Here is the input.
Amino acid sequence: MRNHKLLFFITIFFFALGFVNIHFSLLGIVCMTLPIILLLKDRKKTWCQGYCPRASLYTNCGKTKKWNSRKTPQFFIKGNMKWIMLAYFGVSLFFIIMSTLGVARDIRPAMETLRFLILIPLPFKMPQLFDIIDLAPWLTHLSYRFYSMMMTTTFLGLILAMVYKPRTWCTICPIATVSDVILKK
Ligand code: SF4
Here is the structure.
């Protein structure tokens, strides 16, 4: 089964929704949990093989290249890169959870800007088409954190797609690594 070629619209729609209201970024939780639910149900990587909107985005962007792809580094295929990415993913989740708890307990202010690679703030405030009033600040913080993580990994995947083969990100994607570990068990 191959990813439907138009699924990439879902990825674009997801990032566009963040400009409507950042809290829509919490929909990204579906992207993280659905692959594992399908994996446990089907005992294979159903999401990766047929439904991943991000993979569709990488495939489509890769196709637009006017230059030849470089050979995927062995470090990605057989080396430790996927474990490094999994560690990054784990650290990101840890930061997200701990800082959200900090905001919920009034120890720190809510983050209201995007960050690249967890720590690097982007030098602009995201326009919001409409505000949702009276939401708990920790929910806003969680939304910005979540959007930042999705933005960072999608950006890295796009760079890889433009330099190497379109779905090079899939060789080091934390979802794929976790899926492989579960399948082995
Ligand atoms: S490996 Fe990651 S990016 Fe690739 S298809 Fe699976 S979930 Fe999507």
Strands lie at 115-116, 120-121. The mean pLDDT is 93. The longest strand covers residues 115-116. The pocket of iron/sulfur cluster is lined by residues 35, 47-48, 52, 54-55, 169-170, 173, 175-176 (CB under 6 Å).
